[in-house]
Amino acid sequence: MTTDRRHPAGFWLDTCGDDLTPRPSLRGNDVADVVIVGGGFTGLWTAYSLAKNEPSLRIVVLEKDIAGWGASGRNGGWCSSDLVSPPEAVAARYGQDAAVAMRSAMVDTVVEVGRVCEVEDIDAHYVRGGTLKVATSMLEAERLRADLETSRHFGWTDDDRRWLDADDARERIAVDDMVGATFSPHCAVVHPGRLARGLARVVERMGVRIAEGTTATAVGPGRVRTERGTVRAGVVVRALEGATGSLRGHGRLLLAVHIHMGVTEPLPPAFWDAVGWREGEALSDMRPVFVYAQRTRDDRIAFGLARGHPHPGSLTPTYVVPTAARALRATLSRLFPMAAGARIDSLWSGYIGMSRDWFPSVGLRDGVAWAGGYFGDGVSTANLAGRTLADLIAGRESDLTRLPWVGHRWRPWEPQPLPMVGVAGLFTAMRWADAVESRTGRPSRALGLVERLLPD
Ligand SMILES: Cc1cc2nc3c(=O)[nH]c(=O)nc-3n(C[C@H](O)[C@H](O)[C@H](O)COP(=O)(O)OP(=O)(O)OC[C@H]3O[C@@H](n4cnc5c(N)ncnc54)[C@H](O)[C@@H]3O)c2cc1C
């Protein structure tokens, strides 16, 4: 796989330790029991669960570039119990019990990813160190308190998420100007490149065929067309997330949103002595443009921001925009003034899939299965999707197949350019709100605009 400075693969794929030479492509027509389109976490976890449950199945994964080349090899590595739709949104559609069941399935999923890494010997740097969400202003603290209150409403106790005053929070991670934080144990961090590439090797060993450099052009019951031939199969799985719109007839299902991440150079022992961050915590804050970060195994900070740019689904951008670097640097200096001069060693981007109603979905209908719409929360959700799809494909009723997102029907996006304009407006309003808030310490009126622009 070749990458250049404008389209970098990013730190995780660069350091995954795997040979990124593409596996052989599809050559002509083929037949399988299950054909999976997309070699990211969704496709690979689905292949894993299917092959584990039914080793005799003939499974083919079709991947346009290489396994892990999409968001799965480019993310923040938060393997968290968060779902893109918060429990109150799940409850509003499907009821309180469904929201509680969904959350508890996500909590189990965080553990499940670690279990598989262990038993399959995938050295993905998995550490279940929890999430520290920090507040650096009274406004952020109010939001944190409100979030905590909501967790209580859905059955979470202090064991699941608790308030930390500033001193206790600093014991974990000494973020500058912190006024308080919450801690939840239900999150792990991973090296996503090692997880994606390791998982690909594991499923291959189990007999799954991964055809890389193979672009699907049309997906329908019983077959997938590619530029290199057609694969016929009893079940077709669509696992393309942000690239879903590149398939004929799927342009309005999921919008591709382009987001960036960076990683610092390794920071010196003096920095870590001062900051702590020893337990593998995933770190975030409560600003309108929030940060998500982890300390890497080699003492860097890998981090990204909730800033995005929508793209029509047919484009799946991997280029880097210069403003992203400035925004990341400003965040680093704000949270950790000691790291203000640190070099950003790698900056890259990827794309995520956003559904019109901000709700993820997994399902199987008329021989075509799908999963996605995770937005920025796909690392663990894709594992849950894989296990759920394996049950659905086997025709097995289970606790997983009864979860509320199963069979959830996405409302299609409006024709372009409306989604592009609306979602670009949403991200701009978030940036305005963030800027006003950091200048004045007060909520910005742009937040009202954010509320209005959020997909319903
Ligand atoms: C910068 C960034 C940070 C993120 N941070 C986090 C985080 O910390 N925690 C979290 O939970 N989530 C995070 N996410 C989201 C998470 O990475 C995704 O939700 C998840 O990886 C989606 O997995 P997937 O397999 O569904 O999609 P992808 O990983 O995008 O896989 C789709 C695959 O399909 C391939 N493909 C595309 N078109 C075709 C075609 N026509 N034919 C065949 N193959 C095709 C692509 O090359 C790709 O490999 C982040 C995403 C990004 C980009």
Attribute tags:
456 residues, alpha+beta, nine-stranded mixed beta sheet, eight-stranded mixed beta sheet, 34% helix, 23% strand, binds flavin-adenine dinucleotide
Structure, explained:
Helix 2 packs parallel to helix 7 and helix 4 packs across helix 10. The chain has 456 residues and is of the alpha+beta class. Helices cover 34% and strands 23% of the residues. The two termini are 39 Å apart. The structure holds flavin-adenine dinucleotide (FAD). The site of flavin-adenine dinucleotide has 43 residues, from helix 2, strand 12, strand 17 and helix 10.
Gist?
The protein is of the alpha+beta class and 456 residues long. Helix content is 34%, strand content 23%.
Give the helix proportion (percent range).
Answer: 25-40%
Instruction: Give the N-to-C terminal Cα separation.
Output: 39 Å
Hetero groups bound?
flavin-adenine dinucleotide
Low-confidence stretches: none
Which structural class is indicated by helix and strand composition?
alpha+beta
Tell me how many strands there are.
19
Strand content: 15-25%
Radius of gyration: 21 Å
Average pLDDT over all residues: 94
Tally of helical segments: 12
Largest sheet: 9 strands, mixed
- Can you tell me the overall shape? globular
